[in-house]
Design a protein that fits this description.
Length: 143
């Protein structure tokens, strides 16, 4: 019997810094394009660790830092010049798109974020850059 047949997924929306789940009650924890917008990243990581069972996996997909120097220059130009202008043109909201760009820059670089995941107690922490680091997937296990 496969995992999908054995158990059901529960989708919840809530405060990532104060989850309403019991300790050691989850097999997996995912967050996508959200952790850079929380007030206290460390609290979110601590909560993820708290609710995961032993053997549970943490996965985070987030906009990140481009690591290749030439691509970084192009991406910075695109991010700070094009994205806010398109946001103003299409949505009439330059400020929200400027916030998006600035929130990406404030988010810790991949290695620093990986060390924060380790500091929360996770093991076998690793990350994979996608599109040269525009997006990164971080993972860790609670062992």
């Amino acid at each position: 019997m496969g995992l999908g047949e054995e158990r059901s997924l529960i989708w919840k929306e809530g405060d990532a810094e104060a989850l309403s789940f019991q300790d050691n009650s989850m097999d997996g924890y995912t967050i996508a394009f959200g952790i850079r917008n929380v007030t206290h990243i460390e609290k979110v990581l601590d909560e993820a660790y708290r609710v995961l069972r032993r053997g549970g996996r943490f996965l985070c997909l987030e906009l990140s830092h481009v690591e290749a120097p030439v691509f970084k220059e192009l991406y910075d130009y695109y991010s700070f010049s094009i994205i806010p202008a398109v946001g103003e043109l299409v949505a009439g909201d330059r400020e929200s798109y400027q916030y998006l760009v600035e929130s990406i820059r404030r988010f810790p670089p991949q290695e620093k974020f990986a060390s924060m995941i380790v500091d929360a107690g996770f093991e076998k922490v690793e990350y994979e850059n996608l599109v040269g680091g525009v997006v990164a997937i971080h993972s860790g296990l609670k062992l």
